[in-house]
């Protein structure tokens, strides 16, 4: 599902809301999650999962074309850990 499909689904299920308002709500939620994660905070959505940031240390990698050693700098990457409810649903264990 992409963002526009999510917005359309929410708008369809809530006919009392204008499409532009639903779009603004969804964008605000995503923007707040992005802002929190970029500030180094953890975002937890109960039953769904938690977003956090993990640091990957500097290392020496290899250029796959030439085999030459390449220094890879330390970087921060987003990480998502599924919640128990989502994991159970994915594995057919409806609660």
UniProtKB/TrEMBL annotation:
Coiled coil (residue ranges): none
Signal sequence interval, chain numbering: none
Organism: Litoreibacter roseus
GO terms for cellular component: chromosome; cytosol
Gene that this sequence comes from: ihfB
Cross-referenced NCBIfam families: hip, PRK00199.1
Listed GO MF terms: DNA binding; structural constituent of chromatin
Protein name: Integration host factor subunit beta
Function: This protein is one of the two subunits of integration host factor, a specific DNA-binding protein that functions in genetic recombination as well as in transcriptional and translational control.
Quaternary structure (record): Heterodimer of an alpha and a beta chain.
Family, per entry: Belongs to the bacterial histone-like protein family.
InterPro entries: Hist_DNA-bd (IPR000119), Histone-like_DNA-bd_CS (IPR020816), IHF-like_DNA-bd_dom_sf (IPR010992), IHF_beta (IPR005685)
GO biological process, one term: regulation of translation
Keywords from the UniProt entry: DNA recombination, DNA-binding, Transcription, Transcription regulation, Translation regulation
PANTHER family in the record: DNA-BINDING PROTEIN HU, INTEGRATION HOST FACTOR SUBUNIT BETA
Pfam families tied to this protein: Bac_DNA_binding (PF00216)
Taxonomic superkingdom: Bacteria
């Amino acid at each position: 599902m992409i963002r526009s499909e999510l917005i359309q689904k929410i708008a369809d299920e809530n006919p009392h809301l204008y499409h532009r308002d639903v779009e603004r709500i969804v964008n605000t939620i995503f923007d707040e999650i992005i802002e929190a994660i970029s500030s180094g905070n953890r975002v937890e959505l109960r039953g769904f999962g938690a977003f956090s940031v993990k640091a990957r240390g500097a290392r020496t990698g290899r250029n796959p074309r030439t085999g030459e050693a390449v220094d890879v700098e330390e970087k921060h990457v987003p990480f998502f850990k599924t919640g128990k409810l989502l994991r159970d649903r994915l594995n057919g264990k409806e609660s």
